[in-house]
Design a protein that fits this description.
Layout (H helix, E strand, L loop, with lengths): L5 H27 L3 H29 L8
Helix pairs in contact: 1-2
């Protein structure tokens, strides 16, 4: 396994931030909507975005042991 580049790390971090924002938006919708079907859909979308976030976090953790300990 190759270490990830700084650019790849930035992309993953940005994607994690986006997934977090999407979870918050779905949670706000679920909390405020009176439509039960829309509430269920938003709760399902929260789970989907949580899975995406976890996948991205796992990617970083898998590459963590490959990262240099000293700046290069």
């Amino acid at each position: 396994m190759q270490p990830i580049t700084g650019k790849e790390l930035e992309y993953i971090v940005d994607s994690m931030s986006n997934e977090d924002l999407l979870m918050k938006q779905c949670a706000a919708l679920a909390a405020t909507t009176g439509n039960q079907a829309l509430r269920q859909l938003s709760l399902q979308m929260i789970q989907t975005h949580q899975q995406h976030y976890q996948t991205l976090l796992n990617s970083i953790q898998q590459h963590q042991n490959l990262a240099p300990t000293q700046p290069q």
